[in-house]
């Protein structure tokens, strides 16, 4: 095993060590250490992706070289490395673009604590991507829940405190469901490592023993992770959390953390249960219809908002619906399209939250659409970035969102019958609704403001922030024009995923 095979373990360990070291650093040093760690994680994840592209199969890494059940194990393949590279890239760009205005939301004495939570959140995301052990996944689900709540509650005002409380209650409920499911699964199989679990589950399925408890296990873990990723109708915590938290925190939660839960669910379906059993239990139908409902209802609720932050927040509910609709198709093409949608949404959503903050800042901190008239001229960079991100959410050609919807439509063609019709109609209706509220917002920020309204002078945005926003915007465009190689990695990674 070469040094490069150790990189995934190094990235996890590095984030955990950074969290410890950051606790004794001054705010400025904590900021630069967090940026450095996220950059190193990005570089190591990209190197891991290059390595896995040369391998014919995934490989396992045992912590301390002790086999299970005494040691812990992570498993690395093309798909895990691709998602780790994409998420770490989005996080690094988000930190570069967002940390400069965090003093507006975080007091000086709490800034180091905020950086610790970012480090722990990144470590948890990486663990959920790589882990081959269900209990380890649960441990880091709890860590990321605490870190995420801290990322939101660090902004001390009434709306944020209420939103963070709702977030914590809903996510602790979801954690309880996941823990109960894992405990029941361990009780009927005696395993926590995914490969032995899959063998035991297949034996249970073939013999018919514990068939009903197994169905309950699938339902508990699925619903728990669905709540955490804000699938409709379990989304109640998401709009206020995203709208009233610090913009960078909202970008991290919606753009990265929610996707990590979905990836863990995909791993549970593939490596623990098996998609043939998932189809027999009709969990895929449940996810499919919830996804379709989320696509429509999330957009309808976004249209009714008058606050731009809540509009962007509700759009996340709609976009998560696309992911679950693809997953609910229970086909290789559907899951691949869902994974591509996760990458496309991750890149665009972080941009939306950060650019929305900039547009609000040059409009006297007014969030309603009529107060945003002319914001695209007062902050040119934020206006351009918001417009391109909105185009991706709508599904305009040459953006990642368009390609994601195209892949979802293509995955629906072989399904036939009413499901194919429902997918195509849902995509068309949802795209139309997306256009209503996103294009309305774009028109608003470029509409001529009233002459009697005075706006504060535009504050200077550092060049590195503008550069980070434009790099992220280019990622969104690249996903629209260079999707072929990425989709090939996703498809080949899925084949070696089980």
List the helices and strands and how they pair.
Layout: H1 7-22, H2 27-54, E1 59-62, E2 73-76, H3 78-98, H4 111-130, H5 134-153, H6 158-189, H7 194-207, H8 211-228, H9 238-244, H10 247-273, H11 275-281, H12 283-303, H13 308-328, H14 332-361, H15 375-378, H16 380-394, H17 400-412, H18 417-445, H19 463-481, H20 483-495
Helix pairs in contact: 1-2, 1-4, 2-3, 2-4, 3-4, 3-10, 3-14, 3-19, 3-20, 4-5, 4-10, 5-6, 5-10, 6-8, 6-9, 7-10, 8-10, 9-10, 9-13, 10-14, 12-13, 12-18, 13-14, 13-18, 14-16, 14-17, 14-19, 14-20, 16-18, 16-19, 17-18, 17-19
Radius of gyration: 22 Å
User: Averaging pLDDT over every residue, what do you get?
Assistant: 89
* Global morphology: globular
**Percentage of residues in helical conformation:** over 70%
SSE class: mainly alpha
User: What can be said about the biggest beta sheet?
Assistant: 2 strands, antiparallel
What oligomeric state do these chains adopt? single chain
> In percent terms, what proportion of residues is strand?
under 5%
Number of helices: 20
Question: How many β-strand runs?
Answer: 2
Query: Strand arrangement, largest sheet?
Result: 1-2
Order of helices and strands: HHEEHHHHHHHHHHHHHHHHHH
Tell me the distance between the termini.
22 Å
Unreliable spans: none
For the record, the count of structural domains works out to: 2
């Amino acid at each position: 095993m070469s040094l490069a095979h150790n990189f995934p373990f190094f990235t996890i360990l590095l984030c955990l060590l950074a969290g410890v070291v950051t606790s004794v650093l001054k705010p400025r040093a904590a900021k630069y250490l967090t940026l450095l760690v996220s950059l190193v994680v990005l570089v190591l994840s990209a190197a891991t992706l290059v390595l896995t592209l040369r391998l014919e199969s995934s490989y396992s890494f045992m912590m301390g070289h002790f086999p299970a059940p005494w040691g812990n194990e992570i498993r690395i393949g093309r798909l895990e490395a691709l998602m780790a590279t994409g998420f770490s890239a989005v996080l690094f760009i988000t930190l570069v673009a967002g940390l400069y205005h965090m003093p507006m939301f975080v007091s000086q004495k709490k800034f180091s604590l905020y950086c610790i939570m970012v480090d722990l959140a990144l470590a948890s995301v990486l663990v959920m991507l790589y882990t081959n052990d269900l209990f380890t996944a649960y441990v880091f689900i709890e860590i990321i829940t605490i870190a995420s709540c801290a990322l939101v509650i660090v902004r001390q005002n009434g709306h944020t405190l209420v939103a963070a409380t709702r977030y914590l209650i809903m996510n602790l409920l979801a954690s309880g469901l996941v823990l109960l499911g894992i405990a029941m699964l361990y009780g009927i199989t005696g395993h926590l490592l995914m490969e032995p679990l899959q063998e035991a589950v297949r034996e249970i399925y073939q013999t018919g023993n514990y068939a009903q408890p197994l169905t309950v296990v699938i339902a508990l873990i699925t619903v728990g992770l669905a709540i955490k990723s804000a699938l409709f109708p379990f989304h109640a915590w998401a709009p206020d959390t995203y709208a009233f938290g610090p913009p960078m925190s909202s970008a991290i939660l919606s753009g990265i953390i929610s996707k990590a839960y979905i990836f863990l669910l995909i791993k549970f379906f593939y490596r623990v249960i098996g998609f043939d059993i998932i189809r027999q239990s009709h969990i895929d139908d449940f996810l499919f219809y919830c996804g379709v409902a989320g696509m429509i209802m999330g957009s309808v609720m976004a249209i009714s908002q008058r606050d731009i932050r809540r509009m962007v927040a509700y759009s996340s509910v709609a976009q998560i619906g696309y992911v679950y609709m693809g997953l609910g198709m229970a086909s290789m093409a559907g899951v691949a399209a869902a994974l591509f949608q996760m990458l496309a949404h991750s890149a665009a959503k972080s941009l939306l939250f950060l650019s929305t903050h900039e547009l609000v800042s040059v409009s006297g901190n007014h969030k309603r659409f009529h107060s945003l008239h002319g914001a695209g001229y007062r902050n040119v960079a934020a206006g351009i970035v918001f417009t391109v991100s909105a185009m991706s959410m709508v599904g305009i050609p040459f953006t990642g969102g368009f390609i994601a919807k195209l892949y979802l439509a293509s995955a629906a063609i072989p399904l036939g019958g009413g499901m194919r019709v429902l997918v195509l109609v849902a995509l068309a209706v949802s795209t139309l609704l997306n256009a209503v509220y996103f294009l309305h917002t774009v028109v608003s920020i470029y509409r001529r403001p009233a002459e009697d309204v005075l706006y504060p002078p535009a504050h200077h945005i550092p060049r590195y922030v503008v550069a980070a926003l434009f790099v992220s915007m280019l990622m969104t465009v690249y996903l629209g024009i260079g999707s072929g190689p990425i989709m090939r990695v996703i498809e080949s990674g899925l084949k070696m995923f089980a």
